[in-house]
Amino acid sequence: MEQATAQLHTPRSVRLERIVDETPSIRSFWFSDVSMHKAHPGQFAMVWVPGVDEVPMSVLAIHGKNEAGVVIKKGGPVSTALWEKKPGDLFWVRGPYGHPYSIGHHHKLLVVGGGTGLVPLLSLLVHFRGRDVTLITGARTASELLFKDWLIADSKEHQFKLIFATDDGSYGEKNQVPKVLRPRNGNSLPHPSKPRKSVQVRRGNLRGLRNRTLPCLP
Ligand SMILES: Cc1cc2nc3c(=O)[nH]c(=O)nc-3n(C[C@H](O)[C@H](O)[C@H](O)COP(=O)(O)OP(=O)(O)OC[C@H]3O[C@@H](n4cnc5c(N)ncnc54)[C@H](O)[C@@H]3O)c2cc1C
User: Fold this and answer.
1) CATH number at residue 43
2) Closest Cα partner for 116 from 67, 83, 158?
3) Among residues of the chain, what percentage have pLDDT more than 90?
4) Spacing of C-alpha 178 from chain mean position
5) Which of 6, 9, 44, 132 has the most other CB atoms within 10 Å of its CB?
6) Phi, psi angles (nearest 5°) of residue 77
7) Residues of 57-92 as b/e, b for ≥16 C-beta within 10 angstroms?
8) Ligand 1 atom 33 nearest Cα
């Protein structure tokens, strides 16, 4: 195996530099790792907790910044063990893995992702600067909306359309994110079942392969 490939697949210890409470159940963990800094939108890291397990986590890396992040929702054993880490603790990572999003040259784009499903789409937004982008994101309730303030500021600065949805209606539209796509009163948002030009997004996944499609407005 070539040295660079071997390095990619060998767990590397990284020290956590900062940890941010993003919502009551989601924390972001930031560290420095040259390979992860270069992760492309849609790629993920394998994050290992010795003695527990290893899970895939989307990598949040904005090119030009010397840090990378993973954004973790507390759930089962691995995510809970990771969630309880403190600044200065070690993380073990491999990768990045997976095919990056293929974004093509479409000008009008609809980007949809709720909860931590938003994470791989954030660095994608940076690649979409100057395009006509609508982002739909949501959560169960207002306090669980991920990166809400950042998205509001970024949407104003870079002029993309931003639609929030919450299941309980406590912020934005009262709806589940996929249902916001349903056409209402001549609304021009496409229904996902209608065939459209689309960007096929495939992401590698050790716990089952997920295919995702970002529909593009015509
Ligand atoms: C490509 C890819 C990227 C991913 N990126 C991210 C990411 O950026 N952030 C992230 O948080 N996760 C991400 N995941 C999911 C992550 O890999 C784990 O599946 C998740 O953290 C749960 O792992 P666990 O071992 O803690 O729980 P598991 O062992 O998977 O689950 C144990 C039990 O806990 C339950 N459970 C697990 N999580 C939750 C939850 N959140 N709420 C309620 N019950 C739960 C399960 O239903 C199960 O019953 C990604 C997965 C893939 C495939």
Assistant:
1) 2.40.30.10
2) 83
3) 64
4) 16
5) 44
6) -65, -45
7) bbbbbeeeeeebbbbbbeeeebbebbbebeeeeebb
8) 76
The boundaries of the domain holding residue 197 are 108-215
Provide the pairing of β-strand 12-23 with 26-31. antiparallel
The Cα–Cα gap between 189 and 173 comes to 14
- Is there a domain that residue 103 lies in? no
Contact in structure between 123 and 154 (CB atoms under 8 Å): no
Which of 33-37, 40-44, 68-72, 212-216 has the least mean pLDDT? 212-216
Distance from the CA of 75 to the center of ligand 1, in angstroms? 6
Q: How far is the CA of 209 from the centre of ligand 1 (A)?
A: 14
Please indicate, yes or no, whether residues 130 and 73 belong to a single structural domain of this protein: no
Entry pTM? 0.82
75 and 148 assigned to the same domain: no
In whole angstroms, give the CA distance from residue 215 to residue 210.
Answer: 16
